[in-house]
Amino acid sequence: AASTRYEAESATISQGSVAANHTGYSGTGFVDYTNVTGSYVQWSVSVAGAGSAGLVLRYANGTSVNRPMDISVNGTVVSAGKAFNGTGSWDTWADGTLTVTLNAGANTIRATATTANGGPNVDHLTVTTQTGAGPAVP
Ligand code: GCU
What we know:
The chain has strands at residues 2-7, 12-14, 16-19, 30-33, 40-47, 51-60, 69-73, 76-82, 94-102, 105-113, 121-129, 136-137. By secondary structure, it is mostly beta strands.
């Protein structure tokens, strides 16, 4: 298996901003989703071969209220209202995981807030391809 990390601050952001006012993130910051339904981060992910891939969304939620998001792959929601529960503080990051199927070549992966609180803070997406699918290509 091969893993590639895609920073949220380098992705396409709709109704969110790059921030660095909390500790523990990778890269140069994280995305602070605007507190509205529909705010999203979208990554472009290219893989050499079609097949199953593991996704890990690194996030922080300093509230005690779930900040659910729809996870979509190439425009299809594959995990509706996936929970991103409180992590204890905005400086404490946790992993949201799921397994998806990717096409060979380019794919879009989008994480869209489904409540008026917006999403959690999102640090990065890690994509791990399965044996035989070839390495993720940044
Ligand atoms: C606080 C926190 C932000 C967070 C925001 C929110 O302002 O500092 O990082 O994004 O709450 O509720 O979404």
